[in-house]
């Protein structure tokens, strides 16, 4: 009994891989996948095992189940390179129509975390924008954005700008560089409702500091639907680590590994005394 | 004003406690991630005055956010170390 169950636990992967192959090579977005009964006959496996395979692909966001209708190939994830572009630009480049619903646009006092990120004092005035961003009518992400009032006093004078980066550029605060911190999470009830999430509640959270040449101009927190969104990050080999030359030289005169050489001199005890 | 060019690297190194306090410095894309020997010798205000956009200290690891010209600073630091 145990053996049979263990066997089927691995067998589901055969069906999963078969379906993933169909999605990659033969089916298009919105196509129905073969029925569970058909798959169960084709592979000589129980319906339960077949369902496990389909469940796995639903969880991965490759398939989507529609109540009472069946299981279909899900829309592809929208992949983004992490860089300082606007949501609208990125969507149009992919042939998707961007839209924004502004929930809040007001001036507030900076909380300590926002103040730290923007290198201002807690309580300093910041413009705060809270909005939902959609592509072709489906919500993709929720954004909260803060900009110091001192840097751009008139930012919200004509209402919330459609593009914050464009608005900053127009005020001589062109975004030059930034840092994103990414983390996976489960959507809060509010996020799930704004993003229209049902069973799959995974979101990707991105915290971003955006800098102009003179310093931080914008801080934002965004939550993206994990089933519609993925990021890709260009990589390069790191620069060599810099080590003080004195110890470098000492290490090379000592036989054996460089770390042992460094220990022999002064490196190891130095840290703690 | 914030120091420029090699002066900036000199100021950053001094605020990290000087070359004697450095085990290693790893240049990342926008940060210098330093392993220092004694974190109490690190002058966070001095790093900010040297042009850092942020300073994170955790144990002996000191991250100095300097932005994309980290490559230039790293080259200068290499000469100073």
Secondary structure tally: strands of chain B: 4
Helix content of chain A: 25-40%
Query: Strand count, sense and closure of the main sheet of chain B?
Result: 4 strands, antiparallel
Measured on Cα atoms, how large is the radius of gyration of chain A?
26 Å
Number of structural domains of chain B: 1
Rg on CA atoms of chain B, Å: 11 Å
Low-confidence stretches of chain A: 253-273
Instruction: Outline the biggest β-sheet of chain A.
Output: 6 strands, antiparallel
Which CATH-level-2 architecture of chain B?
Answer: 2-Layer Sandwich
Judged by helices, strands and strand pairing, the structural class of chain B is alpha+beta
Uncertain stretches of chain B: none
Please give the structural blueprint.
The complex is a heterodimer of chains A (about 270) and B (about 80).
Chain A: H1 2-25, H2 36-43, H3 47-59, E1 63-66, E2 70-73, E3 78-81, H4 87-93, E4 98-109, H5 112-118, E5 125-135, E6 138-148, H6 164-170, E7 177-186, H7 189-195, E8 202-212, E9 215-225, E10 229-232, H8 245-253, H9 258-264, H10 267-270
Parallel strand pairs in A: 3-10
Antiparallel strand pairs in A: 1-2, 4-5, 5-6, 6-9, 7-8, 8-9
Helix pairs in contact in A: 1-3, 2-3, 8-9
Chain B: H1 5-15, E1 22-27, E2 31-36, H2 44-49, E3 54-58, E4 61-65, H3 70-80
Helix pairs in contact in B: 1-3
């Amino acid at each position: 009994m145990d053996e049979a169950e263990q066997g089927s636990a691995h067998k589901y992967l055969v069906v999963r891989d078969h379906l993933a192959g169909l999605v990659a090579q033969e089916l298009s977005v919105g196509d129905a996948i073969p029925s569970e009964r058909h798959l169960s006959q084709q592979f000589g496996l129980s319906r339960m095992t077949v369902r496990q395979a389909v469940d796995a692909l639903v969880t991965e966001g490759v398939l989507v189940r529609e109540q009472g209708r069946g299981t279909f190939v899900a829309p592809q994830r929208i992949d983004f390179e992490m860089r300082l572009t606007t949501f609208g630009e990125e969507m149009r480049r992919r042939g998707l129509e961007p839209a924004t619903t502004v929930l809040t646009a007001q001036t507030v006092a900076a909380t300590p975390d926002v103040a730290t990120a923007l290198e201002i004092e807690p309580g300093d005035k910041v413009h705060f924008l809270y909005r939902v961003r959609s592509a072709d009518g489906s919500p993709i992400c929720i954004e909260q954005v803060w900009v110091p009032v001192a840097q751009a006093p008139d930012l919200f004078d004509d209402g919330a700008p459609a593009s914050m980066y464009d608005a900053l550029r127009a005020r001589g605060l062109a975004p030059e560089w930034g840092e994103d911190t990414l983390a996976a999470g489960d959507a809060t009830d509010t996020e799930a409702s704004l993003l229209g999430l049902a069973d799959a509640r995974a979101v990707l959270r991105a915290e971003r500091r955006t800098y102009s040449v003179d310093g931080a101009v914008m801080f934002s927190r965004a939550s993206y639907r994990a089933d519609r969104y993925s990021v890709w990050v260009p990589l390069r080999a790191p620069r060599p680590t810099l080590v003080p030359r004195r110890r470098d030289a000492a290490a090379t005169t000592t036989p054996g590994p460089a770390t042992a050489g460094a220990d022999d001199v002064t490196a190891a005890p130095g840290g703690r005394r | 004003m914030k120091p420029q060019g090699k002066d900036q690297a000199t100021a950053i190194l001094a605020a990290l406690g000087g070359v004697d306090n450095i085990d290693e410095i790893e240049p990342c894309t926008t940060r210098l991630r330093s392993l220092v020997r004694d974190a109490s010798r690190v002058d966070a205000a001095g790093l900010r005055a040297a042009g850092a956009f942020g300073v994170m200290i955790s144990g002996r690891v000191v991250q100095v956010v300097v932005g994309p010209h980290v490559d230039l600073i790293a080259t200068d630091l290499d000469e100073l170390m």
